[in-house]
Amino acid sequence: MEKTPNRISSPEATGGAGPTFEQKVGVYWLAQLLVGCIPPIFVDSVVERVAFQTEHFGWNTDDMLITCVDGASHTKQLAAQVKRTFAVSASDGECEKTILDFWKDFNKSDNFTVHDRFLLITQRGTNTLLDHFAGLLDCARSAQDAEDFEHRLTTPGFISAKSVDYADEIVKIVNTAQSVPHARKSLWSFFRSLHVLSLDLTADAGQAEAAMKSLLAFTAVGKDGIGAADMTWNALLKEVGNGTPGARAYKLADLPNILRQRHSRIEVKDQRFKRFEGSFFDDPGRYRLDDWGRVSLRTSVPPSTGHRETRRSSGIVDLWTRRRGKVRHRERNRRLLSERSSCLLLQSGGICGSAFRQHASEQPSHTER
User: Fold this and answer.
1) Which pairing describes strands 117-122 and 194-198: parallel, antiparallel, or unpaired?
2) What is the DSSP secondary-structure string of 125-164?
3) What tens digit of pLDDT does each residue of 127-152 get?
4) What pTM was estimated for this model as a whole?
5) Does any domain span residue 1?
6) Is the distance from CB of 194 to CB of 170 less than 8 angstroms?
7) Given its phi and psi angles, is residue 352 left (phi above 0), alpha (psi -120 to 50 degrees) or beta?
8) Helix 93-106 to helix 161-175 angle, to the nearest 10 degrees?
9) Model confidence pLDDT, tens digit, residues 182-213
10) Domain range holding 33?
11) Are 29 and 164 in a shared domain?
C-alpha cells in the first residue's frame, strides 16, 4: 500500500508573506508622499504624512495612519489595517479583532473625526470580499440616513443576501463589546466610514507596484526615469523596513534627501512644463525635433540656414500645434482671442455697435504689432 505523503505548511505562511506585503504597502504610501500623489478614498487631497505602528498615539487600528490635506488645507486621516487575507465572520478571530479595533477608534472623538476613514488593505481581495462586503459599505454610503440604510437592507434584491449576512456578522462582533446591544441601522455611520482597498503588491502581475513606479519615473529629475524609479522603490523598501519597528512617522522633509532630489512633486513638474511651453512658443528655434518626435533644447542656436532651417522650425511648431491645440506665437493667440471675444459679445447683444467700434479702435493695428 502506497504511503500518503505528509501535508506541509504553505510557503507563504512560513516564508513571511504577511510582513513582506505590509512592507510593500508602506512603500506604496511613502511613494505617494514623495511625489505629492492623490491617494485612494480621499481623491480631492494629497498625502502629507505617513505614520507606522500608531498605537502609541492612542489608535487601536495601528498598522498605518495616512494624513492627507485638500486644496482648502483641511486634514483628513486614513487609519489603515493591513491583512494579506481577510474573511468576514463573527467566528473568525482575526476579523473580530480588526472590526473591534475599528469600532473602538470610531468612538474616540479625540482621534477620529467625521472627516476620517478606516481602510482595510488586503492582497488581491476575493470576489466575496470586494463584491459583497465592499458592496455593503457602498450601500451605507449611498443611503441618506440610518432609516434609508435599513430600508435598503430589508428590500429583497436591492443588494445581495450575502451583503446583508455580512452586516449581521458585523453587528454580532460589535455587540460583543457593548453592554447594550446595537441594532443594525444604528451602525450606519460606522459602515459608512469603512473602506476596502485591494493591492496586488506581492503578486506576479504587480499592477499597484507598476502604477507607483510609473509615478516615480514621471517625476524623476534625470533622464533615466525607469532606473530612478527602481532605485527609489528599493530605497523606500529599506526605509520602511527600518522605520516600522521604530514606529516612525514621515513627512516629506523626513524622507532621505537623495530621494527628494531625485524626484520632483507632481505640481512642480506641471509648473516646469508650463514654463517650458511658454519658452517654446516665444522662440521655437531654440528647440530641435529628433527622429522620434521628441523635443529638446539646442545646445547652441545655429545661424539661419535658409529654407531648410525654416522648414525644420515650422515642423516643430506644427507638431506642437497639433498636440497642444496652440497657435504658433503667443501674441497671435491673444489677438485671435480678443477678436473672437469681441464678435461673441456683439452677437450676444452684450455690447452695442458703438461700444464695439470703440473696442476695435483701441486694438493695435497690424503695423503697430
Assistant:
1) parallel
2) --HIIIIIIHHHHHHHHHSSSHHHHHHHHHSTTTS-HHHH
3) 788 889 999 999 999 999 999 999 99
4) 0.70
5) no
6) no
7) beta
8) 70
9) 999 999 999 999 999 999 887 677 889 999 99
10) 15-261
11) yes
